[in-house]
Amino acid sequence: MRSRSLGVDRSQFAIGETAQPADSPCKRSRSVEVSPPPASDVSGGIRHSYAFHNSRFKLIPQIVDGPWVVRRAVGAVPCLLGTKVTTRYFRGEHYVETNVEVGSSVVAQRIIGCCRGYSGRIDVQLGVVLQGEEADTLPEELLGTVQFRWLQVDDPRGVVPLFD
């Protein structure tokens, strides 16, 4: 991901997440949020080590609409993603991308498998936060959100390519 290819200028910041299921190496879910640059404390945190990111990168899921079994499997509890699944980070001056290997966790595989079975019937919102642990990083700042509505993950028709 390059910030310029996304149309991001110096007054904006892009956050991208890529999730790849273990059983489908050619299928990926990618989302990108473009926003004003994060506050200086958060922006500085984005440039830290993998260990820092793994202990602070928090994903907040919410199933807005969908079957009870999916709402129960996903829940709405924030998750420190780097402590649960293998996660890689790619950073640039105006962006950070997170690559999540869903196949590295049996629990994550089961949750994604459940969601896949009902993919055309769920509406999910995901929030991204860097967890604040010191007084100067509280309250936590929401870095971005993305919403997937009735996404057919096994049907690539209608998926708009992110890059040319």
Report on this model:
The chain has one domain (4-147). Strands 2-1-6-5 form a 4-stranded mixed beta sheet. A 4-stranded antiparallel beta sheet has the order 4-3-7-8. The longest helix has 12 residues, at 106-117. The protein has 5 helices and 8 strands; from the N terminus they run ββααβαβαββαββ. Helix 3 packs antiparallel against helix 5. By secondary structure, it is an alpha+beta fold. The protein is globular and about 40 Å long. The protein has helices at 40-46, 50-56, 68-74, 81-84, 106-117; strands at residues 13-20, 29-35, 57-65, 79-80, 86-92, 95-101, 123-130, 142-149. A hairpin with an 8-residue loop joins strand 1 (13-20) and strand 2 (29-35). The protein starts with 12 loop residues before the first strand and ends in a 15-residue tail after the last strand.
Observed structural traits:
four-stranded mixed beta sheet; 8 strands; globular; four-stranded antiparallel beta sheet; 23% helix; 164 residues
